Amino acid sequence: MKKYQAILIDDEPTARDILERHLDKMDRIDLVASCKNAVEGFSALSSHHVDLIFLDINMPEVTGLMFANAVKGNTEVIFTTAYREYAVEGFELDALDYLMKPISLERLMKAVNKFLSVKEEEVVSMVEEDFTFFRSERKMVKVSFEDLFYVESCGDYIKLQTTKGMITTRETMQNVISKLPERQFLRTHRSFIVSLSKIDSFTNEHVTIERTAIPLSRSYKDAVLERLNKL
């Protein structure tokens, strides 16, 4: 069954340790990063495809509410806090759940099962689709997965290189990758996503698609090479 990648952000070591031990018992949740502040959290988001964030609210400098407000795409958030008064604000940010510390294994499992139910509904609704839509030039443009070579982040916009030409969109990389099937696409760099079927060759430093060399960054290289060597 599909596993989902999660990160944990909490400035309290004891709270992180409790959640880490609970999550280690859950086969379908892969905790890829345990962060002590928002800076580490943003770094984890840039390095991994994150499906779920366990997020403390009362943190110094950048609060959990501020962090959640900056999260894009379809990444779900479950708030963790010792302060009940933040609940209303948390749910206004479309948080999936709100857990009061100390968090029991039973209560955490209930929240995770809620997350899994949401994700399985999304999979059922998308299973037959071989295309998606991106907003470009004030309209929604249909892009077939088979036509897409690669995606490149260029500052404030994203370039989608397809067999029919280039499409530009203002969507974030996190939102773009959430629309693409994992079995067909792979992130090689914080600025690049490639179609596996369109790769002509690869080395330890880059993949080549249509004579374009696309870099493998240090953060993604090992995972990319492992997957490519299994094809």
Structural commentary:
With 231 residues, the chain is of the alpha/beta class. Helices cover 31% and strands 33% of the residues.
Q: State Rg.
A: 19 Å
Count the DSSP helices: 7
Helix percent reads 25-40%
The total count of strands amounts to 15
Give the N-terminus to C-terminus distance in angstroms: 20 Å
What is the SS-derived class? alpha/beta
Query: Mean pLDDT, as a whole number?
Result: 88
- Specify the overall morphology: elongated
Order of strands in the sheet with the most strands?
2-1-3-4-5
- SSE order, one letter for each helix or strand: EHEHEHEHEHEEEEEHEEEEEH
> Sheet bearing the most strands, described?
5 strands, parallel
Uncertain stretches of 5 or more adjacent residues: none
- The proportion of strand residues reads 25-35%
Short description:
The protein is of the alpha/beta class. Helices cover 31% and strands 33% of the residues. The protein has helices spanning 13-23, 38-47, 64-70, 87-92, 105-126, 173-179, 221-229; strands at residues 4-9, 29-35, 52-56, 76-81, 97-100, 131-136, 139-144, 148-154, 157-162, 165-169, 185-189, 192-195, 201-202, 206-209, 212-215.
Which features characterize this protein?
15 strands, 7 helices, single chain, 231 residues, 5-stranded antiparallel beta sheet, 5-stranded parallel beta sheet, elongated, alpha/beta
